[in-house]
Model the fold of this input.
Amino acid sequence: MKTCLGIELGSTRIKAMTIDEGFQPVSSGDYTWASRYKNGVWTYPLEEVWTGLKTALSQVEGREDIAAMGVSAMMHGYLAFDKDWKLLTPFRTWQNTITGPAAAELTELFGFNIPQRWSIAHLYQAVLNGEAHVPQIAHITTLAGYVHYMLTGVNAVGVGEASGMFPIDSAALGYDAGMLAKFSALPKVEALPWKLENLLPKVLTAGESAGMLTESGAALLDGLLVPGIPFAPAEGDAGTGMTATNAVAPRTGNVSAGTSIFSMVVLERPLEKVYEEIDLVTTPTGAPVAMVHCNNCTNDTNAWVNVLGEAARLFGANPDSGELYTKLYEKSLEGEADCGGVLVCNYLAGEGVTHMDAGRPLAVRTPEANFTLANFFKAQLYATMSTLKIGMDILAEEGVAIDSLTGHGGLFKTPVVGQSYLAAACGAPVACMETAGEGGPYGMALLAAYMLRKAEGERLEDFLGKRVFAGSAGTTVQPSAALAEGFNTYIRRYKALLELAQAAVEHL
Done:
């Protein structure tokens, strides 16, 4: 049996998964890690990348049967290397909100929204700051691009991943030439000894060959994989999420919800205006996508689950983590549609969509609020997707049509609950497949399978729709009018709550 391997370096776990010739998961492994806040920057040490990869891969059975593979990771961020691929400054992740001036200037220059987390914003902010490493830069890439290069010797990323580094021309399937020229003409950039187009990785599309595992790459993995395995283009978690949920065709979308939450909606037409809240990225084949990316999702909820588990243990109960999540999620269904006046802000980190540079989690209620466990936990879950709703409401005002959304990630592991709230928030049916909890590595494995097994001229959307997901099991939840009305009430209060959260940032 020949399998395809997908690797994802997510925000909280490094995951590896193989799928068989029927596109079903076979074996998996993982490694838990966490970003660190050091010297004002959210980062991960690169040496832990290799520890995590080896740990996750060591748990995968049948590694000798792998016929193709690919690497995915959290999108955006900033990894800068010199000509010898020596890291010049610690990895700056997507979580950072330290590039405001650069992002604002580039958005105005390009007439195209450049979020703070994009690689080009990080690079230009380093230029504006006069950082000493800038003249030495020979390569900038993403985490997925770095791992792919180290394993294959090929400095390239998939077009979806590239679209979180610098704007993409979907017709040319490459970086936007006009915007490259505008960037190069900036006075502080003109004076530097490099051209941006020479720093960026090559752009590849889904289905193209992106090299193979080299002997030196296999050595980095302590021989857990044999040299010669062909690689699909490295993709970001957005692209793998779209693939894992069969959401690469126009009027479809998906929502990935874990440490962060983001939606991807494949567009039929360009948006009429530039919105700071909306990223314009692409599918793994280069089609334009509206992306609402929010830094905060389940982190604060996770903290409350841990506290409530601690309380349970005081009384002699010993629920495991999965049971705690399931019970609390299901309890939330008993809460009132507007959470009875209970409000939660879940910002542990800053949030670009709502223009906050730092986070202060809050739980707030008025004296007359109905403060029950069900209402409190429903407010927690509403909070995980409230910022997303603010962005999705903009798309609704633009007249963007959405036939269906597919949810994946940890928020959807408990059946129905997350789906119900997301359907109410977005006003669209929300489906979840059996693989909902593992979108990233599964999607990357599917992209590897597409490269290996596609027919001549077979499009990715046809490969997925007709060969992978035809007749696949899953559940679909329609929007509830009562929940939608309650969520709209909640979101009006939530927007006011953000003013308190901003005051907390300033005073605490």
The chain has a mean pLDDT of 94. The first strand starts at residue 3 and ends at 9.
